[in-house]
Amino acid sequence: MSGKKIIIAIDGYSSCGKSTIAKQLAARLGYNYIDSGAMYRAITLFFLRNRINFENAEDVANALNDIEISFRYNEEAQASDIMLNDEDVSIPIRDMLVNENVSQVAAIKQVRAFAVAQQQAIGKGKGIVMDGRDIGSVVFPEAELKIFMTADPAVRVMRRFKEMYVTNPHITIDEVRHNLELRDYIDSTREESPLHKAKDAIVLDNSSMTREEQLDKVMHWIAERTEKAPATA
Ligand code: CDP
Asked: Is the C-beta atom of 119 inside 6 A of ligand 1?
């Protein structure tokens, strides 16, 4: 593909495979992959550990002042680890307790402003794939390619259950289903940047697609968009 680089924004419901395709694309294109959800998860982990009252705006503002988030590329995993004040929190941010609180934290206006400013700074150089809930609508409304991913809820529950079972064999399918339904509901109905399909996003329903089929389809869309993009400085 040409030396031109674009921004790829992938949004959608929980557990529909956004990070899988985003990682594949980043590896294929030599782009940087940013998991914006990991940032909301890291902020949530900090709030929980420090017993921050989410409902108190002053406590939230003070806590955000104490948080520094960065990504560190991990050669072995071929993905970035997320650092919270110099601690690698890639594993603890996937805990059920974080799952249970992250959507409430991500609905807070100050939290979103804090995370979005960092996401926009990271994307300045283009050549980026970012996934989340508001990437095409708020973070990069000018992204050359916007994908809105979706998959059958039952398929999503089983994918997430299998993922979580590896580190938590006590987890039940019902717990996973309940958490996904609740987060999707909060994420889509919140006042601040709710999850919705940007009008220029392409819908990708991958319920019955293999990873290869999905990658081929998206690579085709990227080739079209990259062709039209101006040369990257
Ligand atoms: O992996 P999964 O799709 O379940 O979630 P995630 O991408 O790790 O995001 C965790 C939570 O962060 C979501 O349920 C949203 O509440 C929030 N989030 C958001 O509000 N905006 C984003 N751009 C990304 C995530």
From this structure: no
The amino acid occupying position 8 is I
Query: Does residue 120 lie in a domain region?
Result: yes
User: Within a domain: residue 229?
Assistant: no
231 inside domain: no
Q: Cβ of 46: how many Cβ atoms within 10 Å?
A: 21
Q: Which helix (H) or strand (E) holds 147?
A: strand 145-150
Other C-beta atoms closer than 10 Å to the C-beta of 168 total 12
213 — alpha (psi -120 to 50), left (phi > 0) or beta?
Answer: alpha
Q: Please answer whether residues 108 and 54 qualify as being in contact, where contact means their C-beta atoms are separated by less than 8 angstroms.
A: yes
State the distance from the centre of ligand 1 to the C-alpha of 132, rounded, in angstroms: 6
**Is residue 232 one of the residues assigned to a domain?**
no
The predicted structure's pLDDT at residue 78:
74
20: domain CATH number is: 3.40.50.300
Between CA 45 and CA 48 the distance in angstroms is 5
37 lines ligand 1 (CB under 6 A): yes
> Measured from the CA of 16, which atom of ligand 1 is nearest?
3
User: What is the average per-residue pLDDT within 148-169?
Assistant: 94
Bridge partner list, 204 = 149
DSSP, residue by residue, 102-139: HHHHHT-HHHHHHHHHHHHHHHTTS-EEEEESSIIIII
What pLDDT shows up at residue 129? 97
Flag whether pLDDT at 166 surpasses 90. Answer: yes
